[in-house]
Specification:
It is built from 4 helices and 6 strands; from the N terminus they run ββββαβαβαα. By secondary structure, the protein is α/β, with parallel strands linked by helices. The chain has a domain of 125 residues: 3-Layer(aba) Sandwich (Rossmann fold). Helix 2 links the parallel strand 5 and strand 6. Helix 1 packs across helix 2 and helix 3 packs across helix 4.
Length: 191
């Protein structure tokens, strides 16, 4: 079986000109699992989901718009994520795949399954959120998470001001190569 070490700092250019950052873990020939990170999070969070190597599974961990190496997308809707994942899967020459999301990535995994039913074999959500407007939906959450959800609903601009410095410092600290280089995106290797 052909294997690879973790490839942490990959990018592709999407059809609308945005950049999508992603990392890969596990064997190249293994069944593909697109893993949607939490909020906040990045492509580098994937190894925390299992001890050691991911076994026989090829894990692809893309970053949502505005996280890590991925370009922010103004006016973005949750359902737009399916097309970003489709473009990445096409780039990697993956026809059918699994998708999972943990925490804030769960709704994104479901959006991919909904938007690409002919390509998604199965979907899983791990410790994910559901509709936050349901009575009692915030019960049991950490106080900080409850505050973030309330701010998002009542004053999204204030939440944006609050998380922007955190997001900026997180993407700089987590990128092993620093700021994104300009130019064409590299072609996948070993495929």
């Amino acid at each position: 079986m052909q294997t690879q070490t973790a490839d942490l700092d990959r990018v592709i250019r999407l059809s609308d000109g945005r950049v999508l950052g992603y990392a890969e873990y596990g064997p190249v020939a293994g069944p593909a699992l697109f893993l949607c990170h939490g909020s906040p999070g990045s492509r580098l969070d994937a190894p925390h989901m299992w001890p050691g190597e991911p076994g026989a599974v090829r894990v692809i961990a893309p970053e949502r718009p505005g996280y890590g190496r991925s370009t922010f997308q103004p006016g973005r809707r949750l359902t737009d994520w399916a097309d970003d994942v489709r473009q990445l899967a096409d780039w990697l020459r993956i026809d059918r795949f699994l998708v999972a999301g943990f925490s804030g990535g769960g709704p994104h995994a479901l959006a991919v399954a909904h938007g690409l039913p002919e390509r998604v074999i199965a979907v899983g959500c791990i410790g994910s959120v559901g509709p936050i407007d349901t009575p009692g939906a915030l019960a049991g959450m950490q106080r900080t998470n409850r505050m973030i959800f309330r701010l998002a609903r009542r004053t999204p601009q204030a939440l944006g001001l609050l998380v922007a410095p955190i997001s900026s410092s997180t993407s700089r600290a987590r990128s092993p190569t620093g700021p994104l280089a300009t130019g064409t995106c590299p072609k996948p290797t070993g495929r």
